[in-house]
Q: What sequence folds into this?
């Protein structure tokens, strides 16, 4: 049963990562891209969790804790220094 | 192995499978929300699903599969740090998204921040003209 679950979640996470990468590539503003890369990081953490749960090992656990501790620094930094370069309000 | 232990294992495996699939579906929901929602603030709403609830479900699945007690505090630490850090980044992204007008103002039902921003801009203008 665990192998079926692994296959199903692999398909789901691949679709989700494709959607997030599409939003990073397309995303009209820098903040949209930052948000989508945060989601991509969450999807990566989800993949690490599923690998540990299905194969019953804990090799990635410290990586997961470190991700949840420092994962927010990138988006905070970008959001702090983002500037408004457009002349008028956004219309799309 | 006794049949009771076998039954317990089956129950734990089933619950784990449900948690894993549900946690993965949270990521898919976030991706669909990122692609379909119209502006930054509603996309931020979609993005929080895998970060908090999805991570909780997947960590619970790990804890169920490992069958040891010492792993639960570590998983709890990972989840609590996620709960502490996600609002910080969401606050910063939402704040600069508001200031740089990356949103559809007609979709808002109320805007409590506008008066504060106008007041701050006015006092900044006064400072500049006086000094």
A:
């Amino acid at each position: 049963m665990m192998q079926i679950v692994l296959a199903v979640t692999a398909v789901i996470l691949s679709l989700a990562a494709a959607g997030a990468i599409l939003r990073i590539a397309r995303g009209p503003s820098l903040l949209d891209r930052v948000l989508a890369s945060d989601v991509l990081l969450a999807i990566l953490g989800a993949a690490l969790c599923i690998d540990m749960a299905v194969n019953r090992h804990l090799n990635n656990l410290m990586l997961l804790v470190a991700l949840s501790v420092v994962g927010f620094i990138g988006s905070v930094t970008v959001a702090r220094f983002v500037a408004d370069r457009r002349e008028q309000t956004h219309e799309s | 192995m006794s049949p009771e232990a076998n039954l317990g294992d089956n129950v734990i495996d089933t619950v784990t499978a449900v948690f894993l699939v549900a946690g993965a579906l949270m990521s898919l929901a976030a991706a669909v929300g990122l692609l379909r929602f119209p502006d930054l603030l509603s996309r931020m709403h979609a993005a929080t699903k895998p970060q908090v609830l999805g991570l909780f479900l997947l960590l619970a699945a790990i804890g169920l599969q490992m069958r040891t007690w010492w792993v639960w505090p570590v998983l709890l630490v990972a989840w609590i740090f996620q709960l502490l850090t996600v609002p910080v980044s969401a606050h910063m992204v939402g704040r600069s998204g508001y200031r740089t007008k990356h949103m559809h103002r007609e979709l808002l039902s109320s805007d409590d921040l506008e008066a504060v921003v106008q007041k701050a801009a006015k006092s900044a203008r006064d400072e500049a003209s006086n000094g």
Observations:
- The radius of gyration of chain B is 22 Å.
- Chain B has a mean pLDDT of 86.
